[in-house]
Write a structure and sequence with these properties.
The chain is built from 14 helices and 18 strands. The chain has about 500 residues and is an alpha/beta fold. The chain has three domains: about 180 residues, Rossmann fold (3-Layer(aba) Sandwich); about 180 residues, Rossmann fold, CATH 3.40.50.620; about 100 residues, GMP Synthetase, Chain A, domain 3 (2-Layer Sandwich). The strands form four sheets. The chain has a seven-stranded mixed beta sheet with strand order 2-1-3-4-9-8-7, sandwiched between helices. The structure holds xanthosine-5'-monophosphate (XMP). Xanthosine-5'-monophosphate binds next to helix 10.
């Protein structure tokens, strides 16, 4: 198997997933365990990290690991650490680099097993501030970018490799090929693993075993994740699952109807609709800080659940948490918290309910595949993701009923126009943001001082990286005109043209 040493990168689990998909077993270990667990491994991968190698207390490993004769691939921080420990030099780059860079490997004279079948000039995805300026003895540079001299380095004899970019993110061209090449170097046979019917039946059997005859509450939101999680548990424990939909008032237009239609009709599930709009507005009153908003929403959800649990005797709570939610809420020892996803980091410590999160290990595309196997209708499977804290994280500043109303109207226009152009299905997400910025405008002959709505449209496959969508100008024109004409409070519409990283998809 492959050992993956986790230094806290946001993409550690994504690396693990890619390796698993290629048919190899992989074990994620902490830096302290690395030496012990490496014995018997075929290959070692060193992950990235939010830390810099020159920082005090930055995570490190036993240098002897490089003497074990096992092929090693260092990614980003992994490359820096390898260089620092083996006598190279790493500096704080004066220019931080996020997103695409062109990888040039044309200059290399020797062939490289790591770059086999990868042409020069591919796009590689970067997310770093530091860089290697001197490589250790025995190493050779085999690819560069315009700003990084040592983007890929190798010690051919020892089969030790370091790369500055992230082959695991979907936006790196030939990223999978690079990982395949590393596995081949490590002597592992490539065999793609699939999510199929048996795999899903195993998940259901696991839930059945662990839940037994207990009752569980499930928080349906109409989104893909909670729908798939609910169905998995429903298949496992049937009527012992109490499904509810909490109307927080932070949802989009028409959400409750879709939910009733699909679950009550299609699956004959009995759904309790709970009106908690007031509770959420009161809890959010005056809160501006995004993290506090998320925490307050998480807490209110749990309060409502605990009330239902008390009435029904349920001890368990099903949540549709997926892997990116876990990692952004800082799920590993060295990872930095990006945001507290309301169903992970936003939960109060004294929560009495025990969580069942059957999708905690999966990415969105995998969840959609599981949903398909379970027979979920297309209208749910192909829905764009919607954040647990709802529209509250799309309103910059405090959340009020009137701002929610404006945002809901703008969002509806965006959804309608995108559907008309048949573009909705190609996008990861498209939505409106209430920016909280007031600007001057003119309506008729009068001065207007009104709100600014931002449009965010993104393409992504794995949540960890994304491009802003290059929507046709005509469509943006139509959306903008409708928003300013139909919503009197708004007099300006802007388009967000930032990729992830460095921006996250949601504004908060
Ligand atoms: P970011 O903004 O972190 O979002 O780039 C990545 C994806 O996750 C969704 N998102 C959430 N989903 N609970 C959720 O269930 C949350 O708290 C949450 N925050 C963001 C977001 O809509 C995007 O698709």
């Amino acid at each position: 198997m492959i050992i993956l040493v986790d230094f806290g990168s946001q993409t550690t689990h994504l690396i693990a997933r890619r390796i698993k998909e290629l048919g190899s077993e992989i074990l994620i270990v902490t830096p302290d365990e690395a030496m012990e667990k490496a014995k018997g491994a075929r290959g070692i991968i060193l992950s990235g990290s939010p830390a810099g190698v020159y920082e005090e207390d930055s995570p490190t490993i036993d240098k002897k690991i490089f003497e074990l004769g096992i092929p090693i691939l260092g990614i980003c921080y992994g490359q820096h650490l390898m260089c620092q420990l083996l006598g190279g030099e790493v500096v704080l780059g004066n220019k931080k680099e996020y997103g695409p860079a062109i990888l040039n490997s044309e200059f290399r004279i020797q062939s490289s097993e790591l770059l086999k079948n990868i042409p020069s000039g591919i796009t590689a995805w970067m997310s770093h501030g530091d860089k290697v300026v001197k490589i250790p003895q025995g190493f050779e540079t085999i690819a560069q970018t315009e700003t990084i001299e040592h983007a890929v380095i190798e010690n051919k004899n020892k089969k030790i490799y370091g790369i500055q970019f992230h082959p695991e993110v979907i936006h790196t061209e030939f990223g999978e090929q690079l990982l395949k090449n590393f596995l081949t170097i490590a002597g592992i046979k490539i065999k793609k693993q699939e999510i199929n019917k048996e795999f899903v039946e195993d998940i259901i059997a696991d839930i059945k075993d662990s839940v037994g005859s207990e009752k569980a509450i499930c928080a349906l939101s109409g989104g893909v994740d909670s729908s798939v999680a609910a169905l998995l548990v429903y298949k496992a424990i049937g009527k012992n699952l109490i499904s509810c939909y909490i109307d927080s008032g932070l949802m989009r237009d028409g959400e409750t109807d879709i939910l009733k239609q699909v679950f009550a009709k299609h699956y004959n599930m009995d759904i309790k609709i709970i009106d908690a709009k007031k509770e959420f507005l009161i809890a959010l009153k005056g809160i501006v800080d995004p993290e506090l908003k998320r925490k307050s929403i998480g807490k209110t959800f749990i309060e409502v659940f605990e009330k239902i649990a008390k009435e029904s005797g349920a001890k368990l709570l099903v949540q549709g948490t997926i892997y990116p939610d876990v990692i952004e809420s800082a799920g590993s020892k060295y990872a930095h918290k990006i945001k507290s996803h309301h169903n992970v980091g936003g939960l109060p410590e004294d929560m009495k309910l025990i969580l069942i999160e059957p999708l905690r290990q999966f990415y969105k595309d995998e969840v959609r595949k599981i949903g398909q196997i379970l027979g979920l209708p297309k209208e749910i499977i192909s829905r764009q993701p919607f954040p647990g804290p709802g529209l509250a994280v799309r309103i910059i500043g405090d959340v009020t009923e009137s701002k929610l109303e404006v945002l809901r109207k703008a969002d509806k226009i965006i959804q309608e126009e995108t559907e008309k152009e048949d573009l909705y299905k190609n996008l990861w997400q498209i939505f409106a943001v209430f920016t909280g910025i007031k600007t001057t405008g003119v309506r008729g002959d009068n001065r207007a001082y009104g709100e600014t709505i931002a449009i965010r449209a993104i393409e992504s496959q794995d949540t960890m990286s994304a491009n802003f969508a290059k929507l046709p100008w005509e469509l943006l024109d139509k959306i903008s005109t409708r928003i300013v004409n139909e919503i009197k409070e708004v007099n300006r519409v802007v388009y967000d043209i930032t990729n992830k990283p460095p921006a996250t998809m949601e504004w908060e």
